[in-house]
What does this fold into?
Amino acid sequence: MTAAPSITQNLAPTPAAYLQASRRVQAGEVPNLRPLRVAVLSTVSAQLLQPFLIVEGARRGLQMTCWFAPFGQLEVTALAADGPLYAQNSEAIVVLARLEELAPEFSEQTVSLDVVVARLRDLLRSLRERTTAALLIANFAQPERLTAGVGDAMLESSQVSAVEKANVALAAACRAVPGAFVFDYARVVAEHGLRGWYDARMFALARQPWSVSAQIATSGALARTLRAAFVSPAKCLVLDADNTLWGGVVGEEGLGGIALGDEYPGNVFKHFQKHLRTLKERGVLLALASKNEEADVLAVLDQHTDSILHREDFAVMRINWQEKSANLREIAAALNLGLDALVLFDDNPFEREEVRVALPEVRVLDVPADPLQYVAALAESEAFDQLTISAEDQQRASMYQQAQARAEASRAAASPEEFLAGLQMVATIGAVGADTLPRVAQLLAKTNQFNLTTRRHTAAQISEMIDSGGVALWLRLADRFGDHGLVGVAIARPMEGEWAIDTFLLSCRVIGRGVETALLARLAALVKTKGGSELVGEYLPTAKNALVRDFYSQHAFIDCGGNHWRKSLSDALPSPSYIEAHFHE
Amino acid sequence: MNDKLLQILADTLGVDVGTLNEETSMENTAAWDSVAHLNLVLSLEQSFGQRFSPDEFMQMQSVAAIRRALAAHGAS
It folds into this structure.
């Protein structure tokens, strides 16, 4: 972790404070950050995380640039080799998919999550075939409420154990895909607590499920995981002796006088030593830098029966009366490490400051005054987090992209079209009538992105257009995951043989599935039966609808300038073969 | 004037607080889009120690409307 510049510190837990700080990070006001391009695929509207991710990233030495795929479009985004995801050239792709969307029925009853895990495994493979970016996939949080309540724990069909099993299977799927890692979202939720994690209002208003504190926690954990994947961990923990490895000063109180044992306060230090031993077992080098008589310290390490750490546990020891910084320099040299590979843990604020000033490359931890907090301070420093992508991982990732991997991944769809076909979409298209008019008017009022003209006609105005000979169509969409409801509207009006498309829109829930092509084809067919010879499409640009700028040219309309396009109706417009269309006009 | 509401609005939108006034609304402010709006109301909740209903979220689309909502909650 870089030294903490004040821009990202002590922020109020509000979007306003994080937005303000994130702008300063983006403007380059926090020096020495490692740039990192990240793409996020999610079943929810995750872009509200952006300011939190940028700030939490900067706290950990990362200058993150985030790109968010349209929500709900996991496979469509991943399978489009020429699509916007791969154009980002992201170094990491994060998948945040929730059971609430992937298996909606799970909230009411325990259903097998095998299908969900298989779907995500296929998604990881599809991504891996197309990019060498690091892949981070969130595992599943426990449901906020259990259907069986207090009875869940002893059920064979326990929801809690179903989620745990799914997480085990997801981890196995990650291990099988090179460069894929679990983002332990379940753990983040557990550490925060499920109560207060969700904000039902936010989900209702914006399809974003998290409370502000959950957004901060998720972003912090994600930034921590990304840092662990991209920044090599520190190698060596340099420890002080007195009041760090044991309580008291051995040079004054003697071997029997220091606090180290099975009773308070000695048990606090013994517990800390055990934690240090597990760090060593994980591959962290331990070193000792102490202002002491060498013989006094060695006596504790060699002879004290409650000392967990012994002389041989330390890769290097510098026990003398010279300055701490000089000892750290010698330790780095002895281990053939850079100073930036060292982390200092010393209870003495004076020594910490001396090292900070003399050797800014060394990571000096803020050690709490209470020894009971030592373990937490060390763990939360994130200094030894490791999720390294080895060169071998990189190589395996690029090998995976080659054709031979295809056989293994044959269950995964190979193209967006193939995936879309697997969705078994059924579009029902009908004429707008009294029953559908309120929903249609609501869509006109609300839809911003996939909306060619953004005309906010009222229900009465739409009625009048129909009465004066216009065609107004609605579209409902269902697929094998459920019914999306009424999600599309097209309105056209006759103008002496040619028909003008007054309104053409689609709810953002179903963008990217070719549904619009089916709706346009039906509109064209219907206009033709009413004697129309040509359709005229219009694009009225707004701040939000750049998405559909090329809609008419993509559908073989001819550009006639001034944001107008024409299409002769002599031939029928094609409709996607993978969408089954029913008509109810 | 050091107004807490206007300062939060300025921080959320990334504009100078001097450009904001009692007439400022979602309608007449380009940066005040739907995402900024959610962030704004969530920030106001934390800073004023209040909690607004989804209907209030939808109504608080101008400085004047926000002042009314805060007053209705006994906060200002």
Summary: Chain B touches chain A at residues 8, 11-12, 14, 30, 33-35, 38-40, 42-43, 46-47, 53-54, 57-58 (CB under 8 Å). Residues 4-72 of chain B form a domain with the Non-ribosomal Peptide Synthetase Peptidyl Carrier Protein; Chain A fold (CATH 1.10.1200.10). Chain B is about 55% helix and 0% strand. The longest helix of chain B spans residues 34-48.
